[in-house]
Amino acid sequence: MHEHADEHIIERLLTDNEQLASHNREHFDALGCFVINLMSAPGAGKTSLIAQTAPALKETLDLTVIEGDMVGDLDVQRLKEAQIKAFQISTGRSCHLDAAMVARLLHSKEMPTSDLVFIENVGNLVCPAEFPLGEHRRVVLLSVTEGDDKPLKYPVIFRNCDVVILTKCDLMPYVEFDKERLKRAIRGLNPEAKLFEISAKTGFGMDEWLDWIRTQCSVFQADRKKHRSEAFMNL
């Protein structure tokens, strides 16, 4: 009896989250913000990637970051010190962001008009996979120091993403990491996912990542303009 009740509660939570995520997506669409949800285990390099990405895009794209952490504000302060617009969401005991947390931020803070929003999720390869936030794309970071077996151990998050970024590639010569095994695992779970190999420290692979972001933002804005034109024509 209790097991069925728990399943019903979980199903209701996920359904409510889906509805709020759709609301958030509409909010971001209205603001003209293309949103990327960055997910990974702790220490994979999400903040470092953002810190290197933002300056490279500043001439063409305006960027805002929503920073999720259970406690503390070290990451958001690091971004602000780098002159990156950043807003903190403290999740407390929750090991992931959910759509309600993002919705509260959107309605309590005046979000700046931005072309691009990064949502840096709490470090976790399990829970974030089940809770969309209203993002347009989902990106999973995997550090070479974590091992090449993570997609097999945590298949849901890799199955439900658009991009996998292999980070800290400058450390590849010093760790046991079978890149081909990783690629096979990702292809088996999610053949449509793009794979980038990056070192935020050295800049290796950053150009391809930046080009992907620029293309995604351009397509988003073109689609938005088309939909607004069609809506106007139907008045």
Question: Which SSEs are present, and which pair or pack?
Answer:
Layout: H1 2-31, E1 34-40, H2 46-57, E2 63-69, H3 74-81, E3 85-90, H4 99-108, E4 116-120, E5 137-143, H5 150-153, H6 155-159, E6 163-167, H7 179-189, E7 194-197, H8 206-233
Parallel strand pairs: 1-4, 1-5, 2-3, 2-4, 5-6, 6-7
Helix pairs in contact: 1-4
CATH homology superfamily name: P-loop containing nucleotide triphosphate hydrolases
Coarse structural class: alpha/beta
Q: What CATH architecture do you see?
A: 3-Layer(aba) Sandwich
Q: In the residues, how many domains can be counted?
A: 1
Strand content: 15-25%
Please write the string of helix (H) and strand (E) elements. Answer: HEHEHEHEEHHEHEH
Helix content: 40-55%
Quick structural overview:
The protein is α/β, with parallel strands linked by helices and 235 residues long. The protein contains eight helices and seven strands; from the N terminus they run H-E-H-E-H-E-H-E-E-H-H-E-H-E-H. Helix 1 (2-31) runs parallel beside helix 4.
Structure characterization notes:
- The protein is an alpha/beta fold and 235 residues long.
- It has one domain: Rossmann fold, CATH 3.40.50.
- 46% of the residues lie in helices and 17% in strands.
- Helix 1 runs parallel beside helix 4.
- The longest helix has 30 residues.
Keywords:
Rossmann fold, alpha/beta, 235 residues
